[in-house]
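Q: Got a minute? One more chain.
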Amino acid sequence: MSRILIIAEHDGQALNPATAKTLSGALKMGISNIDLVVFAADPSAVAPSAAALAGVSRVLTIAHDDFAHPLAARLAPEVAALAGDYSHVLAPSTTFGKDLLPRAAALMGVNQVSDIMEVIDERTFKRPIYAGNAIVTVRVPDGGPVVATIRTASFAAAEEGGSASIEERSPQASNPGHTRFVKVEGSDGEGPDLSSADVVVSGGRALGSSDNFAIIYSLAKKMGAAVGASRAAVDAGYVPNELQVGQTGKIIAPDLYFAIGISGAIQHLTGIKDAGTIVAINKDPEAPIFEIADLGLVGDLFELVPELENAV
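A: Always. Here it is, folded:
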């Protein structure tokens, strides 16, 4: 019998919205038995919200001090040990999922399907290739489990209203010992999470410096938006790399996206193709970003952005 296991992404206190979006992708497969596993030092804060997601049959909680900081090297053996009871093992196509699931798939001796953006049936999917310039249909051969990451920008979050049972399980694998948690480094910026924000304000290399990026932060704060950036801005050192939007950064689908001083390289466009409305500000009227923008302003961003902020 087909049964799906979803690896929950969370911060120890709340589920990441990517988990509910992964569930939506799983529901498209037409399989009614869907379990969600929570690895945590103390799963009690996260398990109830996982159980409340409509469509989840059971929530499995596995507690261990090692899971206070979820390292892929530690979690992958646990996932592989659980996988024998499932026909599908899924995770969000986020940094967490992209780090964990390939390791688990390798331990299981199967290939992984990355970035599922459309479900045809329980073993047939569509996924982007060539930086999103082409969409390929892939089918996982019968006889083995489906191990896949779900492109969260392509699915809405599953609704609440469920009442799944919660079952405690014991860890089944030991710490491999070759990887250890040291520390987390990140920006101290305020505002919504970039991966799930409804409004995102991104800046590019045209800002010229990290100091000039202050106008992006200011506009974002005024709008209650998350801050993003192009790879060129990240490579130039204007902002930390966790703000990067694009093929090698975060794939996002906000309702409203501002591309300020961003030329529109294909790698960046891949990260925003599912955005609702795209607004571009660039002094170059021939910039590729205007080809996909819903609204465009041609002019000096250092003049236009403050005007825009005053109008908000």
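A: Residues 10 and 16 are 5 Å apart (CA to CA).
Q: Perfect, thanks.
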